[in-house]
Design a protein that fits this description.
single chain; 8 helices; 3 domains; 5-stranded parallel beta sheet; XdhC_Rossmann_dom; Rossmann fold
Length: 297
């Protein structure tokens, strides 16, 4: 499968990953400009952005990019020649395992977009779905009679725009699922009445927005949709609303006993067990050298 096809597959399944692209390579590195790979949250590398020595440096930097959700231009050098401009988003790694040359690799994290569950089959629900897609949010539609939450752990926001039906049940389900943004399209009086029926605590009541949307004087379905999306953006960008996604693994590190390099322990990290002691290496070369030493001794 091509890297582009794999990336599209991960986007569809809402799996976070890092797209790594070699932008410059100096001989005698094995990678070439244009080589690319995908790095998954568990440290797995799919594709090619250099040999095993370079992969360890790329893996560590990519996991950091996933956690910060910030792109990184990584330069991997074989020695202490740090002639690389210091700038935001740039990083230098000295890799003693490299035999020569240098690599510059652009690491771009791909974090799933906020997923908005819209309940209802009304003009406002239709307009809201279009507006969410326009700003890049994921959309999940459901009628009021449907199972309220198909994937609660992945849902950033739930907006009920059904103008009737089991609105109270949907709100209760969203609260129980821990959805961070819950909105009910209703007048102030009707919304308060629905919340009163639920007997919510003050903390729970504060989590439900009704009337939902910023108070911009919206009248039409499209204007109401704009006000809701604007409020949701504000909640994410300013108020700290969390966008759920698959967790990034905290990959452990180990010291290569041959070259002294710190390596990220992942599924494909060279490994050897000697006398019930586990060792990890930056490359198969270091592993072979270590194994030979242990055999000779």
């Amino acid at each position: 499968m091509k890297i582009s096809e794999r990336a599209q597959q991960l986007v569809r399944t809402r799996t976070p990953f890092v797209h790594a692209t070699v932008v410059r390579a100096q001989q005698p590195t094995s990678a070439h400009a244009g080589d690319e790979a995908i790095l998954l949250p568990d440290g797995t590398i799919e594709g090619f952005v250099g040999g095993q020595c370079a992969q360890n440096s790329v893996r560590k930097a990519a996991l950091g990019a996933l956690q910060s959700n910030e792109s990184v231009l990584l330069r991997v050098l074989p020695d202490g020649d740090l002639q690389f401009p210091e700038a935001p988003g740039a990083a230098v790694v000295v890799n003693p395992c490299l035999s020569g040359g240098a690599l510059e690799i652009f690491l771009e994290p791909q974090i799933p977009a906020p997923l908005v569950r819209i309940c209802g089959a009304t003009p406002i629900a239709d307009a809201l779905a279009e507006m969410c897609e326009l700003v890049g949010f994921g959309v999940q539609r459901g009628a009021a009679e449907a199972d309220p939450l198909d994937s609660p752990s992945d849902t950033t926001a739930m907006v009920i725009a059904s103008h009737g039906g089991p609105e109270a049940e949907l709100i209760r389900a969203a609260l129980d699922a821990g959805v961070g943004y819950i909105g009910l399209v209703a007048s102030k009086i009707r919304g308060a009445s629905i919340l009163d029926e639920l007997g919510l605590t003050d903390a729970e009541r504060a989590r439900v927005r009704t009337p939902v949307g910023l108070p911009i004087g919206a009248k039409t379905s499209q204007e109401i949709a704009v006000s809701i999306v604007a409020e949701l953006i504000q909640a994410i960008r300013k108020d700290g609303l969390t966008v759920p996604s698959s967790p990034v693994s905290v990959v452990s590190e180990a010291l290569d006993p041959v070259c002294g390099m710190t390596v990220a322990v992942g599924p494909d990290t060279p490994h050897l067990t000697v006398d019930d002691v586990d060792y990890w290496f930056c490359s198969s070369g270091c592993r072979s050298s270590f194994a030979t030493t242990k055999t000779d001794s």
